[in-house]
Amino acid sequence: MVLNPVISKLSGKLVVLASASPRRLEILNNAETLDKGLFKAPHEYAVETARQKALEVARRMPFVRATPFCMTKHLKTPDIVIGADTIVTLDGMILEKPVDKDDAYRMLSSLSGKEHSVFTGVAIVLCHEKENEEVDYQLIDFYEETKVKFADLSENMLWEYINSGEPMDKAGGYGIQALGGMLVEYVHGDFLNVVGFPLNHFCKQLDLIYNSSTSSSDQESSTVWLSHNGNLTQPSSANHTHHIQSSPSASPVHKVKRKSSKTELNESSMTLVNSLSKHTGDKDCANTTLPPMTSRGQVKELKVTEPEDGEPKKEDLQRICDLLDGFRASKALFTASKMCVFDVLHSRPGGLEAAQVAQEIKASLKGTECLLEACVSLGLLRSKERMYENTDLSTRFLLSDAPFSLRSQILHYNDTVWPIFSHLESGVLEGVSQRDKALSQTSKDQDTLHSSQDSKLRFMNAMHNIAKVTGKAIATAFDLSSFRTACDLGGCTGAMADEFTEAHPGLSVTVFDLPTVVQLREHFQPLHTDNRVSFVAGDFFKDDLPKADLYILARILHDCSDEKLDILLSKIADACTPGCGLLLSEIFLDEDRKGPSRGLLQALGMGEGKQRSATEYSLLLKSHGFITAHVRHTGNLLDAMLCIKA
Ligand SMILES: C[S@@+](CC[C@H](N)C(=O)[O-])C[C@H]1O[C@@H](n2cnc3c(N)ncnc32)[C@H](O)[C@@H]1O
After folding, report:
1. Residue 169 — pLDDT band, cuts 50, 70, 90?
2. Ligand 1 test: best mutation among 517, 552, 571, most atoms within 8 Å of CB?
3. pTM as predicted
4. What's the ipTM?
5. How far is the C-alpha of 513 from the C-alpha of 173, rounded, in Å?
6. Secondary structure (H, E, C), 10-52
7. Highest-confidence range of 92-96, 307-311, 526-530, 534-538, by mean pLDDT?
């Protein structure tokens, strides 16, 4: 669009930048309590935060004017209040301001060598003072995205920048306008947006507000009219004018107008309602069930609110009941998988009745009906006119031969993890693994040779499943083009090695695992037949390791005590020459050890190892001469870290 003069339109107007107001701290505190899980896309979070900043200030301004002790020079209601919030996102995850140097390290190393997005959400509140001293607010918001790519950052570079102190108060841990500029390879889009304010987009917006008679249908922004105190309820009518119900302190009824499509209107207003209801505690406002997990799988600590009638809230009870019933749901999944319910249903397009399923799985009709109905309630099956069939979720992950099948992993959970967890109380009391105790009963009843072979194959199948699901994300997490040979220590069936050779045509991988495992690997189909994956049997604590440029340790170290880890890392360090790589893949605990719960629940199994954060791994590796080059939170089940031998 052609940009017309706009700044002159502001002359004589009182413009307030919300973030610069004396109430900034409180506003930011309020804004920072926003639950990111509520937002479908990161930019929505930035826009919402900007709205809250602007609205808070706009709503307080007339109040400030009435305060006798306030030293304000502006006794007038502002004409415009502007709020802005900038966030950095990587692979859909919002990176906030680092809490400490380790956090800054985690953030900056995750940005290293990658393109990320910087979003600034901007909210413009136009205040229209009426004759009766009431104020109407018109809210216009928009966002701007800029793509930024970081260069590959060496360890020294990262720490030099972190030690400058600059990252600490900056979203994403860097400031492009200062020292942080040296980290940046390119910027696609508005540079000032990365600095914190998309001036060009803002001017275009002012142009639309003050100069243009252009229809608003082509605007990306949204406009909402608010009541005096900014309260509104969920829109209830289909046209574009919605009545809002005021809270007790608000003036009776105001109108909300928005020049946009109906669907957008509902979505936008809902977000605003949700956020405002947080501030006002207005229980008539729209309520959504919050997802209890963060994007990294940490269960959120949600406040329990006691309604006035003293009754517990439905959502609070639901959260406790979900935990109570969690084991029932797991066991229903295990049983349906073990009894091949999903495979049976897949073999009959159009579905089966409960009696037919019962016949196929050789089970009672009553038991089968209960199992099928429970699976429907868990979203694993769907039913229509008494016929049952798989949902997309079970077709993708629960069939025995699906490319991303997790069935063997489920059977491993049923036959190994479940018995261990049924001894959890003893495990916690004694602080040692209950594995032998839990599994001795099962093996007592069976022929020892066969049972040990069966359980080994079951374990290998489970590892194979997970490697197929996670392998590609790990193999492609870093640029490995400088490595020619790799050794996957504890590489099991070779499924992970297959993903590495698939992703890196110049790479050959030797899988190193215990002799019994290497013997049994013939039960597993290799992905390729071009001989770039070979197998060597041995014990990585005792035997010489095959020579390689890159060592891979996937899901090995969490099972090692600090002493064993020390032995293994010393052996790898001895085998490495400077420049060799070590690629580690594990669940990295958050630095505050509050999540992800998958990692912490795994630790509860009380094996001899322990779960560690990326920084803990990084320090352990550093003590063996490996410098962390990159850390990736892949968003898949496992995270990854690439270290280089100094
Ligand atoms: C948890 S599994 C991980 C498998 C594979 N790395 C993956 O991520 O899919 C651990 C693997 O380490 C192997 N392993 C355990 N101790 C070993 C040792 N001392 N020497 C060699 N391999 C070992 C096991 O046989 C098993 O295959």
Report:
1. confident
2. 517
3. 0.58
4. 0.99
5. 40
6. HCCCCEEEHHHCCCHHHHHHHHHCCCHHHCCCHHHHHHHHHHH
7. 534-538
Is the CB of 180 inside a 6 Å radius of any atom of ligand 1?
A: no
245 found inside a domain: no
Q: What is the mean pLDDT of residues 339-352?
A: 96
Query: Prior bond to 5 cis, omega within 30?
Result: no
Distance (Å, whole) CA 109 – CA 161:
11
Compute the distance from residue 427 Cα to the ligand 1 centre, in Å. 23
Quick check: CB of 545 below 6 Å from ligand 1? no
The ligand 1 atom at the shortest distance from the C-alpha of residue 495 is: 9
Q: How far apart are CA 508 and CA 426, in angstroms?
A: 45
| 85 catalytically annotated | yes
- Number of continuous H segments (helices) and E segments (strands) in the chain: 23, 19
Q: Count Cβ atoms within 10 A of the Cβ of residue 257 and give its class: 0-12 exposed, 13-18 middle, 19 or more buried.
A: middle
The domain containing residue 181 runs over which residues?
Answer: 7-209
* Amino acid at residue number 244: I
Is residue 100 in some structural domain? yes
26-30, 224-228, 558-562, range with the lowest pLDDT: 224-228
Per the structure, how many domains does the chain have? Answer: 2
Residue 266 lies in a domain: no
Does the Cβ of 491 fall within 6 Å of ligand 1?
yes
Distance 457 CA to ligand 1 centre (A): 13
Query: Mean per-residue pLDDT for 4-25?
Result: 61
- Ligand 1 pocket: which of 406, 492, 639 to mutate (most atoms within 8 A of CB): 492
Tell me which residue of 47, 44, 28, 158 sits closest to 97, measured CA to CA.
Answer: 28
Q: Residues 107-119: what's their mean pLDDT?
A: 93
> Which domain-ending residue is among 185, 209, 233?
209
554 lines ligand 1 (CB under 6 A): yes
Chain segment 545-570, per-residue pLDDT in tens: 999 999 999 999 999 999 999 999 99
